[in-house]
Amino acid sequence: MPATPENIASAADCLGHGNLVAFPTETVYGLGADATSDRAVARIFEAKGRPSFNPLIIHVEDLAAARVLGSFDAAAERLAQAFWPGPLTLVVPRAPGCPISALASAGLDTIALRVPAHETAQALLRACGRPLAAPSANRSGSISPTLAAHVAASLGDRVDRILDAGATGIGLESTIIACLGSAPTLLRPGGLAREAIERCLEGRLADCAADPDRPTAPGQLLSHYAPRAALRLNVTAPAPGEAYLAFGPAAPHDGPMRNLSPGGDLIEAAANLFRLLHELDAEAVSRSSTIAAAPVPHHGLGEAINDRLARAAAPR
Ligand code: TXA
Ligand code: MG
């Protein structure tokens, strides 16, 4: 539907009810959901068919809204003042009390923030009055959409609304810079040139690709969420006292227990995964026990859930 004021207002309403709306930004079309809702964010992963949970970029209307969600050091402030709104994403520490879904930042204590310049994106953010998680609006593994027709062809009826404002201007995703206390680091080259960023910072950007100790692909750079307690997988009979992450109907258990989805719904399980793991980890650490996770079916979002559980259980 064309990005008229009426359609933007009804798309905002749709987002407020936990649904998915594809919208144009100056880089590519994004697949948006209420970033404060684990359940809405889980629907993004389901619609994209991603085999794992990457942390998503959180879109906000301006720097003031971004400061509520993340902690900006001097470099982050400078970059935000210079380039927002625009094709730049800043990865910063999550602010205390940050209300963003743990699933949206894949359980990490950092957050990727961006203020898009596109007038439709701006109007939608103002109309719905909440931050929007939005990866590119395409199925996992296919190319990023620069036209509403690309979104429709890739996602079909997996997306509830598509706001059409014609071709996106830049056609390449935003540049991602991490500002996490040490030197600002380029995580993903994109629509804002490195040279412009380096001029602003009056110095070279650290480059994750130039450091042999660090992997090159942005997804790999993330330190994946790892609980402090050891985690065992595919456990149907947890030991007494062990912290148990159940899935589906579960027998009573002598110890802390959380259920990803008592009814066996994988979307609900994805929405709950990181929050419940954090809760069980705190309980397991306080009683020096391990965490046991029930088997999760390996279809739909189950594949991504099992990917994250396997990483969390990996020896370290
Ligand atoms: O241009 C864009 O940035 C588009 C439009 C729609 O805004 N969005 C986009 O989002 O490309 P997405 O979700 O595909 O990009 C997510 C990437 C991750 O793959 C990861 O590289 C990085 O952002 N990222 C997100 N959160 C991060 C974090 N906490 N630490 C490091 N990298 C993070
Ligand atoms: Mg993408």
What order do the strands of the largest sheet run in, or round the barrel if closed? 7-1-2-6-3-5-4-8-9-10
List SSEs in N-to-C order: HEEHEHHEEHEHEEEHEHEEEHEH
Q: Nearest-angstrom radius of gyration? A: 20 Å
Q: Mean of residue pLDDT?
A: 90
For the secondary structure, the number of strands is 14
The best one-word shape is globular
List all distinct small molecules, including ions and cofactors, that are bound in this structure: threonylcarbamoyladenylate, magnesium ion
Largest beta-sheet characterization: 10 strands, mixed
Helix percent band: 25-40%
The unreliable regions are 210-223
Straight-line N-to-C gap: 49 Å
> What proportion strand?
15-25%
Short descriptors:
316 residues; alpha/beta; 10-stranded mixed β-sheet; 4-stranded parallel β-sheet; 33% helix; binds threonylcarbamoyladenylate
Overview of the molecule:
- The protein has 316 residues and is α/β, with parallel strands linked by helices.
- The protein has 10 helices and 14 strands.
- The chain has a 10-stranded mixed β-sheet with strand order 7-1-2-6-3-5-4-8-9-10, with helices on both faces. Strands 11-14-12-13 form a 4-stranded parallel β-sheet, covered by helices on one side.
- α1 (5-16) crosses α5 (119-128).
- Magnesium ion is lined by residues 135-136, 144.
State the gist of this model:
With 316 residues, the protein is of the alpha/beta class. Helix content is 33%, strand content 15%. Bound molecules: threonylcarbamoyladenylate and magnesium ion (MG).
